[in-house]
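Researcher: Let's do a round of design. I'm pasting the structure tokens now; please hold your answer until I've finished.
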């Protein structure tokens, strides 16, 4: 991939199923840590369109009830496999889908109780999104 000389806006989501369990996936791009699905916003695409597309591409899940949670800055952090500058826009949403199909960005996935998620080796920025979600939903 070509070197980027500008911040890249991205979207990601905490996805909850009908049982209230959180979807997490393990990704080699994040050094094997558990993360939420998401990715870049394409030119001409709204953040919600990007979120729906990225989740569909990475997991095959359709989402609903999208709620903005927080934004985070990621500047050349070694937690990611490439030197990048991201601006994360994190959301929470729900899904009624049951069949998960991962693309090559994830090696595994789990549906887990939110309380147990933080006990897993969750990637730092995912942990921040979970913490912010919990603050809004006490």
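Researcher: That's everything. Go ahead.
Model: Designed sequence:
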């Amino acid at each position: 991939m070509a070197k980027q000389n500008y911040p890249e806006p991205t979207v990601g989501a905490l996805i909850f199923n009908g049982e209230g369990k959180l979807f997490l996936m393990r990704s080699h791009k994040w050094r094997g840590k558990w993360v939420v699905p998401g990715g870049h916003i394409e030119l001409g695409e709204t953040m919600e369109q990007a979120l729906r597309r990225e989740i569909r591409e990475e997991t095959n899940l359709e989402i609903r009830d999208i709620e903005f949670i927080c934004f985070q800055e990621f500047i050349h952090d070694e937690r990611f496999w490439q030197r990048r500058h991201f601006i994360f826009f994190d959301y929470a949403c729900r899904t009624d889908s049951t069949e998960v199909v991962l693309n090559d960005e994830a090696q595994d996935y789990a549906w887990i109780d939110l309380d147990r998620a933080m006990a897993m080796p969750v990637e730092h920025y995912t942990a921040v999104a979970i913490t912010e979600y919990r603050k809004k939903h006490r």
